[in-house]
Amino acid sequence: MTHEVLQKKLVTAIEKKLADLIANQPQLSLLLSEAMHYSCLNGGKRIRPLLTIATGMMYNIPEEISVSVGCAIELIHCYSLIHDDLPAMDNDDLRRGKPTCHKKYNEAIAILAGDALQSLAFETLSSTDLNITQTAKLKIINQLAKSSGLSGMAGGQALDLINTGLAITQQQLQQMHIMKTGALINTSIISGYLANNSFDITLYQKLSDTATKLGLLFQVIDDIIDITSNTQILGKTAHKDLDNNKATYVTILGIEKSNQYANMLYSEIKNSLTKYTNADFLLYLIDLIYFRNK
Amino acid sequence: MTHEVLQKKLVTAIEKKLADLIANQPQLSLLLSEAMHYSCLNGGKRIRPLLTIATGMMYNIPEEISVSVGCAIELIHCYSLIHDDLPAMDNDDLRRGKPTCHKKYNEAIAILAGDALQSLAFETLSSTDLNITQTAKLKIINQLAKSSGLSGMAGGQALDLINTGLAITQQQLQQMHIMKTGALINTSIISGYLANNSFDITLYQKLSDTATKLGLLFQVIDDIIDITSNTQILGKTAHKDLDNNKATYVTILGIEKSNQYANMLYSEIKNSLTKYTNADFLLYLIDLIYFRNK
Question: Could you report the per-residue pLDDT of B79-94, keeping only the tens digit for each?
Answer without folding.
Answer: 999 999 999 999 999 9
